[in-house]
Design brief:
single chain, about 300 residues, alpha+beta, eight-stranded antiparallel beta barrel, 9 helices, 9 strands
């Protein structure tokens, strides 16, 4: 074989290998979960009754196993809502969870908290710029720590520099910030909230786990700034979550009772420990009222 032919052969092999790698990478890309949904249209009156959705398309453990913290963002908002409505609250979480807000298919892909609140709030918060408001929003739906026995939640903040730069963190020697170490990373605990079972603002047929920031000022460790920004004196944030499967929760965030965004919470250790048992039985301890409509397919 001549030198030229050897070179061409090597080049062809390289191209073939590159093509294989590209195709393999494409095959690994997540697709939307294969879940059944009721038909719906763009108009509000075309939305299906959530009780009927659950009756006709109950979710099995196999269905829930297809949903991941990342592929759920490939669904549109109505599909996310239909999944949420078919979930129960599950147990109130305990310990640290990783959090990610997401924008369903067809969304803008941007968090515009400033637009949701109409460009201003009562009192001093009215002077927050849109960029500052959106920064607060991005901070609130990241990592969280649940203190189940205390019925309290606190948000994990890895980087305080952005909040400090715009003057939203009060700290002095007499009132140091509370820290926690998660996966070897030192983080700060801010934005406390109360945990309880309560009515879902989307689906009132059964309770959700509520993360309520409104009256956080009577929680031990509360500091005026930045904690009050999520409270009744600020954005009036109220989250609600339901369990997809152990260690994995789907959440909805509201600003003054107006829906703002979706988010997911995930704890890998709990998922690996309790997930296999849930896949077999489809049951889990329920801390909240599960409603009168029975789930017609507990197992696949």
């Amino acid at each position: 074989m001549t030198t030229e032919l050897k070179a061409l052969h090597a080049a062809a092999l390289a191209v073939a290998l590159l093509l294989v790698l590209v195709l393999a990478a494409c095959s690994r890309e997540e697709s939307a979960p294969d879940i059944k949904f009721a038909s719906y249209g763009a108009a509000y009156e075309s939305k299906p009754d959530l009780a009927q959705v659950e009756h006709e398309f109950p979710l099995t453990p196999e269905d829930l196993a297809r949903i991941t913290p990342t592929n759920i963002a490939l669904l549109d908002q109505e599909q996310v809502d239909q999944i949420y409505a078919r979930l129960t609250a599950g147990p109130i979480p305990d310990g640290p969870f990783d959090g990610t807000l997401f924008f369903p298919r067809g969304g803008s892909g941007k968090l515009r908290l400033s637009e949701i609140v109409g460009g201003g709030l009562k009192g001093f918060v009215v002077n927050l710029s849109g960029a500052k408001a959106d920064l607060i929003g991005e901070t609130l739906w990241k990592g969280k720590v649940f203190f189940r026995d205390e019925r309290v939640l606190r948000n994990r903040i890895e980087d305080l520099s952005a909040l400090k730069k715009i003057g939203l963190v009060e700290e002095d020697a007499a009132h140091p910030l509370t820290k926690i170490t998660v996966d070897g990373k030192e983080q700060w605990l801010l934005f406390p909230a109360k945990l309880y079972c309560g009515q879902s603002l989307l689906d009132s047929r059964r309770e959700s786990i509520i993360i309520d920031y409104a009256f956080s000022d009577d929680i031990p460790g509360y500091r005026r700034m930045p904690d009050m920004l999520a409270s009744r004196q600020g954005f009036k944030v109220r989250d609600e979550i339901r369990m997809v499967r152990p260690g994995f929760y789907l959440g909805r965030a509201y600003i003054d009772r107006a829906f703002a965004l979706n988010f997911v919470l995930y704890n890998k250790q709990i998922a690996e420990r309790d997930g296999p048992g849930f896949e077999k039985t489809g049951t889990v301890k329920e801390d909240c009222w599960t409603g009168t409509q029975q789930r017609t397919a507990a197992t696949g």
